[in-house]
Design brief:
The protein is built from nine helices and ten strands. It is globular, with a radius of gyration of 17 Å. It has a six-stranded mixed β-sheet with strand order 6-7-8-3-9-10, sandwiched between helices. A four-stranded antiparallel β-sheet has the order 2-1-4-5, covered by helices on one side. It is α/β, with parallel strands linked by helices.
């Protein structure tokens, strides 16, 4: 079993006076996909925001590569190798594909500010569209661009929030293949928030099911029966 790159213990999160996450424990290892599942509104996106630094956690311990992380900003965590692909993609519609990719340079030292050739091996369509504006791409192409932009930052931890949402089936398959390639490369931990059950079940090495901001079920792929997991995320 791989050592955990990311370890969360008893993580809590509030929005103002409302508590959203209650005592979340999570592990994500390099060479594995950790799937966070559950119905709408249970705190999945809030968990990714806490991990990425987009919203500060209220309490709990956060370790990345053995280092305890305090109240780090999103930029500081990006410099430590945490990349976040948010729900809705959030690409820049009036920037070209190349310019969108280059926004990933912000957390890299100047000597590393280049777009790796691997990006175009994983997403060949982007090479053809480098001069096209992001807003002119289809939803599926925008999702590929958002993931590619995250990969430009050379992450150790990749956070994906609903990458199949609103995407045509052929691109869902391509994105699944890319996630599989990144996992099998072995130098990255992936945390995947996903409601498309078959997609998540096929890729996942570990599963965490949330209900009302708390952990309802967790375990490795070989420890949880498919039907039990399906029942847990369907209620």
């Amino acid at each position: 079993m791989a050592d955990s790159l990311l370890t969360l213990d008893d993580l809590t999160l509030h929005y103002g006076g409302s508590q959203i996450l209650y005592g979340i424990d999570l592990e994500a290892a390099q060479g594995e996909v950790t799937c966070v599942m559950g119905t709408n509104g249970v705190g999945k996106t809030s968990l990714l925001k806490a991990i990425s630094g987009s919203h500060p956690r209220s309490g709990g311990t956060y370790r990345l590569g053995g280092e305890e992380i305090g109240r780090a900003s999103a930029h500081a965590l990006a410099q430590k190798g945490v990349a976040y692909v948010p729900q809705g993609r959030e690409i820049f519609p009036f920037l070209t594909v190349q310019e969108n990719l280059e926004t990933g340079f912000a957390c890299l030292p100047k000597s590393e500010r280049r777009i790796p050739d691997e990006i175009f091996d994983l997403f060949p369509i982007l090479k053809d569209f480098l001069g096209r504006r992001g807003g002119d791409l289809s939803g599926g192409q925008q999702q590929q661009l958002a993931i590619a932009r995250a990969l430009v930052t050379k992450p150790r931890l990749l956070l994906l929030d609903e990458p199949t949402e609103g995407i045509q089936p052929n691109i869902i398959q391509q994105i699944g293949e890319v996630i599989g390639v990144l996992r099998d490369r072995g130098d990255m931990a992936i945390v995947l928030v996903e409601q498309f059950f078959d997609f998540a079940h096929r890729l996942g090495d570990r599963f965490l099911v949330l209900e009302r901001g708390a952990v309802k079920m967790s375990g490795r792929a070989g420890e949880i029966a498919r039907n039990d997991l399906l029942a847990a995320v369907s209620v």
